[in-house]
Write a structure and sequence with these properties.
Layout: E1 2-8, H1 14-23, E2 31-38, E3 44-52, E4 66-67, E5 73-81, H2 84-93, H3 103-114, E6 124-132, E7 137-142, E8 151-155, E9 158-162, H4 165-170, E10 178-179, H5 180-189, E11 202-204, E12 209-216, E13 219-227, H6 242-260, E14 267-270, H7 275-287, E15 293-298, H8 307-317, E16 320-325, H9 328-341, H10 350-361, E17 366-368, H11 373-377, H12 381-389, H13 397-402, H14 404-411, H15 415-421, H16 427-436, H17 441-447, H18 470-496, E18 501-503, H19 509-517, H20 531-536, H21 543-547, H22 557-560, H23 566-575, H24 585-596, H25 605-619, E19 627-628, E20 639-640
Parallel strand pairs: 10-19, 13-20, 14-15, 14-17, 15-16, 17-18
Antiparallel strand pairs: 1-3, 1-9, 2-3, 4-5, 5-6, 6-7, 7-12, 8-9, 8-11, 12-13
Helix pairs in contact: 2-3, 6-7, 6-19, 7-8, 10-18, 12-16, 12-18, 14-15, 16-18, 23-25
């Protein structure tokens, strides 16, 4: 796990690349490297930068940027290829010779021999840039789920890329302008939805795609994105015997956890005591050769603390368990560091920052998380809501609204929101939007200068949605929406702020394929949460874990914002120039006032989202810069195929 950066350009790019690489030093404290890129005539065509967190092959043989022996290819790589040992043996049988024991060289040699076709054989999380001096081409690549970030910008015949948005800004070659569509996207859902970034003109490389960078008359430019893998590829046969599905899911989970334990340094666990983290911990304890360490965040507020179930799970799986007690005062004192680490504004992620900092203080460099279980196995309310409202889509649109009041009672949604959502093309998308909308379109228009041209909750292009079942559709929206834009991004940014590699065994192609195929095998199972996952790991879970009501891992913001955090939030919401980032001061003040007066429907999330946006912009010197309504400047990154 590392940080990568670079510039493809005919200009001298060493100084700018060094600035970007220095900006992500926290991602890789073990080594740093810069590498010059040359074309067929030995002219300089750019620079690659790299910050290394050594996990596999701790020796200097893993130094990056890495070049092939003949100098043709260069790579700067972030992530892990978990099946690199098998791939290495296959390449050796083909005659390849290796100089290291690291997965980066396996990828480099595999590309040299098989080109981009080699990507379909990878199991892992990754984002990398590769330069082919013979073809005079660059390639930007990202894993199918988007676990690892990769951002790109084009300016004046140059293509710049980096692991973080702020690293691109550090180059000094990009004008820092906030994107109005991205601000609207953030306010709609609590995070900026890809391909947008909070900075105008920067975009995320599409997951599961290869973006080619070519040299033309006007300099370097991206020339499109070719898809090599999809995040959610359920097999078409969903009519197998349920026990067969359970067997396949269990095998896929076990294999993925085994792969995710591949490391030359110790691996620890995030353990909450819930179904997802317990499943990962149980499987890891089965396949690991040594006792694992586990960590959980606890609170003095009993309604939020998961200390007791986490302790029970730790005893069950014989882990060396550590509890991290967090108070409102602790969070208040940590906020400067949190915002120093925050790459883009996000409603979520502070819990990851806190636990990652504690885990790293124990000398741990790799940790496993249960992230992804709710998205793949139906753990969110959006799955239930989709089932409730689906019958209405058999009726003409005007008739749907007649049932809105009744449906809102069962679906736990307010009637006005249901009326809006019933205009959507499918119940799956309506349920997802209903679950993930923070500020409605009407509220956005009040907060900003007017409605954005950007869809607040974009549809994914990762699969043929119409070919999926209702449950599979909701899973796809959760995977490519909330998980990708919020959970994965925050997990990467806030763990790597402490040079901690966070791995997600449930977010795996093999697991996704098995889970998607089994999505409808058990139905609702009398309210049992995630029945497919539970049945596949039942022997690892206590009945108490199975029966415990689902409670998302969140901090006691509602309480803390009225006590320990009140002065801080109030000072930002009333003191920072909201109009500097395109928000109306009076509308921001009204949201904060409604929260203080405990108005229905205005919980902590709305004022906290505004606070985060305003403080992030102020901390990064963007509260007074221009806000542009332009969509991403270059659209050739839309995935094809």
């Amino acid at each position: 796990m590392c940080g990568i950066s670079g510039i493809l350009s005919l200009r001298d790019s060493r100084a700018a690349t060094k600035l970007m690489t220095d900006a992500i030093r926290h991602r890789g404290p073990d080594d740093v490297g810069l590498g010059e890129l040359r074309g067929p005539q030995q002219t300089v065509h750019g620079m690659f930068g790299h910050r290394r967190l050594a996990i596999i092959d701790l020796s200097s043989a893993g130094h990056q940027p890495m070049f092939t022996a003949d100098g043709r290819l260069a790579i700067t790589f972030n992530g892990e290829i978990y099946n690199y040992a098998e791939l290495k043996r296959e390449l050796e049988r083909e005659g390849a010779v290796f100089r290291s024991s690291c997965d980066t060289e396996v990828l480099l040699v595999g590309w040299l021999r098989h080109g981009a076709d080699f990507l379909s054989r990878l199991r892992g999380m990754f984002a990398f840039a590769l330069w082919d001096s013979e073809l005079d081409r660059g390639y930007l690549v990202r894993d199918a789920f988007g676990i690892k970030p990769l951002y790109v910008a084009e300016r004046d015949g140059e293509v710049l890329f980096a692991s973080e948005v702020r690293a691109l800004l550090a180059s000094g070659r990009i004008r820092p302008a906030l994107s109005a569509p991205a601000v609207a996207s953030y306010l709609s859902t609590g995070s900026v939805a890809e391909p947008l970034t909070i900075i105008e003109g920067m975009v995320a490389v599409p997951p599961g795609c290869v973006v080619e960078v070519a040299l033309g008359n006007a300099g370097f430019r991206t020339v499109g994105a070719r898809r090599f893998a999809r995040a959610y590829p359920p097999e078409p046969d969903i009519h197998r015997d349920p026990r067969s599905h359970i067997h396949r899911v269990r095998n896929a989970l076990r294999e993925s956890v085994r792969y995710h334990l591949v490391s030359d340094v110790p691996v620890a666990l995030f353990l909450s005591g819930g179904i997802d983290s317990s499943a990962v911990a149980g499987l890891a304890s089965e396949v690991s050769d040594s006792q694992l360490e586990s960590f959980t965040v606890t609170f003095s507020e009993a309604d939020f603390s998961e200390a007791a179930p986490a302790r029970e799970a730790a005893r069950r799986f014989n882990t060396r368990h550590h509890e991290i007690l967090l108070s409102g005062d602790d969070l208040l004192s940590a906020l400067p560091d949190v915002f120093a680490a925050m790459d883009q504004p996000s409603l979520d992620g502070l819990n990851t920052f806190v636990v990652s900092r504690a885990v790293r203080s124990y000398g741990i460099k790799v940790v496993l998380s249960g992230l992804g279980g709710d998205e793949l196995f139906g753990g969110y309310p959006s799955f239930r809501r989709a089932r409730y409202i689906a019958p209405l889509w058999k009726l003409p649109r005007p008739v749907r609204h007649v049932g809105a009041m009744g449906v809102s009672r069962f679906a736990d949604l307010r009637a006005d929101r249901v009326h809006t959502l019933l205009d959507e093309s499918s119940p799956a998308y309506a349920a997802y939007r209903g679950s993930r909308t923070l500020f409605s379109a009407r509220q956005l228009a009040s907060l900003t200068a007017g409605p954005s041209r950007q869809s607040p909750v974009p549809r994914p292009d990762d699969a043929d949605v119409d070919a999926l079942t209702l449950t599979q559709q909701v899973s796809l929206y959760e995977l490519t929406g909330y998980m990708r834009n919020t959970l994965l991004r925050d997990s990467d940014v806030f763990s790597m702020a402490h040079a901690l590699e966070l791995r997600v065994p449930l977010v795996d192609i093999g697991v996704a394929r098995a889970a998607g195929s089994a999505a409808d095998a058990f139905g609702a199972r009398n309210g049992m949460p995630k029945p497919v996952l539970v049945e596949s790991v039942r022997d690892l879970l206590s009945q108490e874990t199975i029966d415990r009501p689902k409670r998302g891992f969140t901090l006691p913001f509602e309480t803390w914002m009225r006590r320990e955090l009140f002065d801080e939030v109030n000072s930002v919401l009333t003191g920072v120039r909201a109009d500097g980032i395109g928000l109306r001061r009076t509308a921001v003040a009204d949201v904060w006032d409604q929260f203080q007066r405990r108005r229905p429907g205005v919980n902590w999330s709305r004022p906290w989202a505004l606070y985060t946006l305003l403080r992030w912009a102020a901390q990064n010197g963007l509260a007074e810069v221009a806000v542009t309504d332009a969509l991403p400047a270059h659209v050739s990154l839309a995935a094809a195929g």
